[in-house]
Design brief:
The chain is an alpha+beta fold. The chain has 15 helices and 17 strands. Strands 1, 2, 3, 4, 5, 6, 7, 14 and 15 form a 9-stranded antiparallel beta sheet that branches. A two-stranded antiparallel ribbon has the order 8-9. A two-stranded parallel sheet has the order 10-13. The longest helix is centred in the middle third of the chain and has 21 residues.
Length: 420
């Protein structure tokens, strides 16, 4: 049976195998949405007439394969995109990676329109906001998937907001490649430093539990109350010897929550290291435990930036273009980031300041609006003409609304615009 060193090597070999040639670097998108009734804004459940399951069944002709678990349909896949469901029946649209953000936007909009056309016939819609607009999380059933039940039980012991995270949140996750371990470390640490800025420019959760929300980073606050061991910034992220190995050690130190054998999930009280010590070679369980940590920046065979709220398409692809532009020239990005203190404490303080004061906050010693403008200009220098247009027309307009509008309560009340 494998030793701890063997398990770590299996992970580090897997991470190394994700390395791409500099000419082959791509970007990916995972965008989550709520499916809601157009009039009431109530959440649409998985089961029932005009439910989410029925939607997936109607979408089958557009896809080539299906994802099933515990006897239920939970996803659809083709070579362009993948649909999957989050625990509270949030619908995620994942777009196949591309070097061209405009190509990603085209594919995303194609499937968004297909889905929206079906939903419109039911007086339903896809909603792109960071938090459920109307239905209380206690009234949202979990998907009929054993793994989610075990996660729900675990998070009830580790924090107060697991129920909110699983049933009430929706995010926009951006994926980028690395060329080797050194490039991974560089990009990973830069992404962690930028996470507070990415979070505030994507802030789009005007409602929390059917009431107006005044915390511009409510999803950050929720994640802090889920399971501190597997959320936030990994403890070793800024250690001098941070590496693939350090990330692997972070993975195997976690509680497993559940184990999977022969497609059957069972609750686990063991650490990941103990579970994998019974697996003689690389297996699906290794991949499983990579997805059971939820840091702000996550590693698989790519880097996944996870701090953004779900946003409408225009803002989503402005955000993607921003990230591409920043990470295209790592020398320029690192030079700009030299003024940022490189520590988890500094990042935590930046998040705290933004939660307290939003765009009026001082972050890393400077007004956050100044940093956002500098970040925007740095990115624009690297992008193609079409991608610069995406960025300029999206969330970085000089005059914009941070939280575009109050979600449906009694009426929609726009907030004041704030320039930066």
């Amino acid at each position: 049976m494998p030793t701890t060193e063997t398990i770590i090597k299996n992970y580090t070999d897997f991470f190394a195998a994700g390395s791409k040639r500099p000419t082959d670097l791509k970007y990916g998108l995972e965008a989550e949405h709520f499916i809601v009734d157009r009039d009431s804004r109530q959440s649409i459940p998985y089961f029932g007439e005009n439910g989410v399951l029925q939607l997936l069944n109607e979408l089958k002709p557009h896809f080539t394969s299906e994802y099933w678990a515990d006897g239920h349909l939970f996803g659809l896949i083709n070579n362009e995109a993948e649909l999957s469901l989050e625990p509270g029946s949030q619908l995620e649209i994942s777009v196949a990676a591309s070097a061209d953000i405009t190509e990603l936007a085209f594919i995303y909009n194609k499937y968004h329109q297909i889905i929206s056309t079906i939903l419109a016939k039911r007086n339903q819609e896809l909603l792109s906001e960071g938090y459920q607009p109307k239905t209380l999380v206690r009234d949202i059933p979990l998907l009929p998937k054993k793994r989610y039940t075990f996660m729900d039980q675990h998070f009830n012991k580790t924090g107060n907001y697991g129920i909110n995270m699983m049933r009430g949140t929706a995010s926009c996750q951006v994926v980028l490649d690395y060329t080797d371990e050194k490039d991974f470390i560089n990009k990973y640490q830069c992404a962690c430093l930028l996470a507070p800025l990415f979070a505030i420019i994507s802030s789009n959760a005007p409602i929390f539990e059917a009431k107006p929300n005044d915390n511009p980073l409510i999803r950050t606050a929720i994640w802090r109350g889920v399971d501190p061991a597997r959320c936030g910034i990994p403890p070793a992220a800024f250690d001098p010897d941070f590496s693939f190995r350090k990330y692997a050690e972070y993975i195997i130190s976690q509680d497993a929550i559940f184990e999977a054998e022969a497609d059957i999930s069972k609750k686990s009280e063991r650490k990941v290291s103990a579970v994998l010590s019974t697996k003689p070679k690389w297996s699906e369980e290794y991949l499983l435990y990579l997805s059971l940590v939820f840091p702000d920046v996550r590693l698989r065979q790519y880097i996944e930036i996870r701090v953004a709220d779900s946003m409408p398409a225009t803002q989503t692809f402005a955000y993607m273009a921003l990230i591409k532009g920043l990470f295209l020239d790592m020398d320029s990005l690192n030079e700009w980031l030299t003024k940022f203190p490189r520590s988890i404490n500094a990042i935590t303080e930046a998040f705290d300041a933004l939660m307290a004061k939003g765009l009026d906050a001082i972050v890393y010693g400077e007004p956050v609006t100044c940093l956002l403008n500098e970040m925007r200009e740095l990115s624009l220098q690297q992008l193609s003409k079409k991608e610069r247009t995406l960025l300029k027309e999206g969330i970085f307009l000089k005059e914009r609304t941070l939280l575009k509008e109050r979600a449906f309560l009694n009426e929609r009340t726009p907030l004041k615009e704030k320039p930066f």
